[in-house]
Amino acid sequence: MRVALIQQKSYPTKQQTIDKTLYMITKAKEQDANLVILQELHQDRYFCINESIKNFDLANDFENDLKFWSKVAKDNKIVLVTSLFEKRVAGVYHNSAFVFDSDGSLAGKYRKMHIPHDQGFYEKFYFTPGDLGFCPIDTSVGRLGVLICWDQWFGEAARIMALKGAEILIYPTAIGWFDSDSEDEKKRQLDAWITIQRSHAISNSLPLVSVNRVGFEKDDKNLIDGIRFWGNSFIVGNQGEFLKQASSDKEEIILHDIDLKRCEKIRQIWPFFRDRRVDFYDELNKKFLS
């Protein structure tokens, strides 16, 4: 599996952003990538920076978007992980990943399960929580455990994907900081983001990729100055070791060959799955314990 992460910024229009994505996909294909992963809500700006009813119109082209990215996967003969604003029915929208196989067919989809709602990240205003559960998607290059952004902070999601046979964990992401944050705070946030995901790779003995956007995106309502997305897209191996990492501020294509057979070897050495005490985990089904 030669995986390519497309780390990019958004441009003034959707078409300009997509044009840059297509250029980067072409470059990745020229380097023999067979799995290409795009960042969260990659077609345009991160519109969840504020609450605006007009932004629901961004999902009106959803069906055409599906056809478009299907063709991109087919034309480039790649497995393509996209992240789209899904309009399900009137008034019900999802933040969803659609995976297209190398023949353009839809291999599967995942609807974001954990929906954040913080300053500058008002996703609960737009997205209904996913209802498809945590199910790996079978493709011609392997079984993909696709999750989205806020999902990356929850070990339960990664574990269920692993228990269902995912061969790699994949997190399309849109995360950044505010310029007003102190340098120490920025470092703590970035370190926490990387560390939690590396822990999922380690505890499940799976390779993991996380692809984030870069660039400063202004709040068009001027409620906040904007978000500076911190990039740092990365690939780690089955023991959490860094294989590749992008910069914090540049558009980049991150490529790496991943050995899916390594999982079995690592699980023989570190048998986390053997020693799980599932007979004592019922309490995890409760919100709080007193």
Describe the 3D structure:
By secondary structure, the protein is α/β, with parallel strands linked by helices. It has a single domain, classed as 4-Layer Sandwich (Nitrilase/N-carbamoyl-D-aminoacid amidohydrolase), CATH 3.60.110. It is 24% helix and 27% strand. The strands form three sheets. Strands 5-4-3-2-1-15 form a six-stranded mixed β-sheet. Strands 6-7-8-10-13-14 form a six-stranded mixed β-sheet, with helices on one face. The protein has a three-stranded antiparallel β-sheet with strand order 9-12-11.
> How would you write the strand order of the largest sheet?
5-4-3-2-1-15
Total helices: the number is: 5
| Average pLDDT figure | 97
Number of strands: 15
Domain count = 1
Q: From the structure provided, what is the oligomeric state, counting identical versus distinct chains?
A: single chain
Low-confidence regions = none
Helix content: 10-25%
Shape: globular
Output the CATH topology: Nitrilase/N-carbamoyl-D-aminoacid amidohydrolase
What's this model, at a glance?
Helices cover 24% and strands 27% of the residues. By secondary structure, it is α/β, with parallel strands linked by helices.
Give keywords.
alpha/beta; Nitrilase/N-carbamoyl-D-aminoacid amidohydrolase; 27% strand; globular; six-stranded mixed sheet; 290 residues; single chain
Secondary structure topology:
Layout: E1 2-7, H1 14-30, E2 35-38, H2 62-76, E3 79-89, E4 92-100, E5 106-111, E6 137-139, E7 142-146, H3 155-163, E8 168-172, E9 176-177, H4 183-204, E10 208-211, E11 214-218, E12 226-230, E13 234-236, E14 242-245, E15 252-257, H5 262-269
Parallel strand pairs: 1-2, 2-3, 7-8, 8-10
Antiparallel strand pairs: 1-15, 3-4, 4-5, 6-7, 9-12, 10-13, 11-12, 13-14
